[in-house]
């Protein structure tokens, strides 16, 4: 995987600045597989979305897609990862536009290979976008879709009384996040009033803190940044480079500290706690930035407008046809080795069987003739 400043693309196809120039006359149909993410907001932009959560240990094929739509060929299928192994098979042959939504590339290095079986790929972490350039997908088919927060996760009205000076909300498990646990313990030595909450919804806690602390376990741009700012909190977050500073301004919309430097963090926190006006101004500016560009509706608008444009222009039909012509090559060179790898490494028998069938071309769910009418309508 790539990393470091040189790995950050200077010009990305982005999903945080989209507009929808025109709506189609009728809603188009999409099937959204996996976690909810922002699928609910797609309905605001002339998409009728059928959502199917994919449970660990299961895989889906084209037959399952048609069962969800009562036999209607959808205009698009979105496979949103749930930080598990591949769950959609045969997509290289699907007769509609296909989208892979990759969030945890810092954990799952197989995502860039798997994405080559789709027409579009949304990538949450910008420093990993170039990893997806190594296959058949062109740069314009790979879209940086930054994290976001929910439209409804906002500061309550009226605002609650502040209860904590410095709050961290998130998983605290020495086996899963040893660096995080060590860092928080070090912070607590210098700032004993640090409040750590590991359970419950973030929206119930962030508005009650004068300062919210973020930590990025693997130096990734995480959802906590957007969730805290969207709740109107003044955020202290590690400096992870352009992935963050391309979106927010240090000292204006949030405050950066050197990663894992507890003393530097505490010095910044104490300075902010002494300056109510500055802390309030930063919180307000951070909230305004999220309201303008970084809520679920913004990400939904970006994907909805891109798919509508592809369909209206006929480019979507061309993408489908190109993918289907290359389906055999995609399967042999990319997907088959990936399925064999997972069949050997996974301990869930149902998945091992499914991947072996897929790798030996016995999984026929996606083997369909070319049909371009949905994307050309």
Word description of this protein:
It is a single chain. The protein is 34% helix and 14% strand. The chain has 377 residues and is α/β, with parallel strands linked by helices. It folds into two domains: 5-148 and 296-376, Rossmann fold (3-Layer(aba) Sandwich); 164-293, Glycogen Phosphorylase B (Rossmann fold). The strands form two sheets. Strands 2-1-3-4-5-6 form a six-stranded parallel sheet. Strands 8-7-9-10-11 form a five-stranded parallel sheet, with helices on both faces. Helix 3 links the parallel strand 7 and strand 8 (195-197). Helix 3 (178-190) packs across helix 6 and helix 10 (327-345) runs antiparallel to helix 11 (349-359). The radius of gyration is 22 Å and the shape is globular.
Identify the notable features of this structure and list them briefly.
377 residues; alpha/beta; Rossmann fold; five-stranded parallel β-sheet; disordered N terminus
Total strand count, please?
11
Radius of gyration from the CA trace?
22 Å
Question: What is the CATH topology classification name of the largest domain?
Answer: Rossmann fold
Number of helices: 12
Could you give a quick summary of the protein structure above?
By secondary structure, the chain is of the alpha/beta class.
Give the topology, please.
Elements (H helix, E strand, L loop, with lengths): L27 E6 L13 E6 L9 H7 L7 E5 L16 E6 L8 H4 L5 E4 L18 E3 L19 E6 L8 H13 L4 E3 L11 E5 L9 H8 L4 E4 L3 H4 L9 E3 L4 H13 L1 H18 L2 H18 L1 H11 L1 H19 L3 H11 L13 H4 L1
Parallel strand pairs: 1-2, 1-3, 3-4, 4-5, 5-6, 7-8, 7-9, 9-10, 10-11
Helix pairs in contact: 3-6, 10-11
């Amino acid at each position: 995987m790539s990393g470091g400043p040189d790995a950050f693309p200077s010009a990305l196809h982005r999903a945080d600045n989209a507009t929808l120039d025109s709506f189609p006359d009728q809603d188009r149909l999409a099937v959204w597989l996996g976690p909810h993410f922002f699928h609910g907001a797609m309905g605001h932009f002339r998409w009728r979305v059928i959502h199917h959560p994919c449970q660990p240990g299961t895989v889906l094929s084209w037959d399952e897609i048609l069962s969800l739509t009562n036999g209607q060929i959808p205009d698009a299928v979105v496979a949103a990862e749930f930080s598990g192994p591949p769950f959609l098979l045969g997509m290289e042959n699907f007769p509609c536009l296909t989208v892979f939504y990759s969030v945890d590339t810092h954990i799952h290095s197989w995502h860039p290979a798997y994405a080559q079986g789709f027409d579009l790929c949304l990538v949450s972490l910008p420093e990993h976008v170039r990893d997806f350039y190594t296959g058949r997908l062109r740069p314009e088919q790979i879209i940086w879709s930054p994290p976001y927060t929910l439209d409804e996760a906002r500061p309550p009205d009226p605002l609650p009384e502040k209860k904590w000076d410095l709050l961290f909300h998130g998983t605290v498990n020495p086996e899963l996040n040893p660096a995080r646990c060590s860092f928080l313990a070090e912070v607590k030595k210098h700032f004993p009033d640090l409040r750590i909450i590991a359970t419950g919804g973030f929206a119930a806690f962030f508005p009650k803190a004068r300062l919210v602390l973020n930590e990025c376990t693997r130096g990734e741009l995480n959802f906590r940044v957007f969730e805290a700012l969207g709740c109107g909190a003044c955020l202290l977050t590690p400096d992870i480079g352009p992935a963050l500073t391309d979106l927010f301004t240090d000292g204006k919309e949030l405050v950066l500290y050197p990663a894992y430097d507890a003393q530097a963090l505490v010095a910044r926190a104490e300075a902010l706690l002494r300056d109510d006006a500055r802390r309030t101004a930063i919180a307000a500016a951070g909230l305004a930035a999220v309201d303008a560009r970084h809520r679920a509706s913004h990400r939904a608008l970006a994907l909805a407008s891109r798919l509508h444009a592809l369909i209206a222009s006929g480019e979507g039909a061309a993408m489908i046809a190109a993918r289907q012509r290359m389906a055999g090559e995609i399967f042999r060179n990319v997907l088959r080795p990936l399925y064999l790898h997972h069949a050997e490494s996974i301990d869930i028998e149902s998945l091992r069987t499914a991947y072996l069938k897929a790798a030996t071309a016995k999984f026929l769910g996606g083997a369909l003739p070319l049909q371009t009418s949905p994307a050309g309508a």
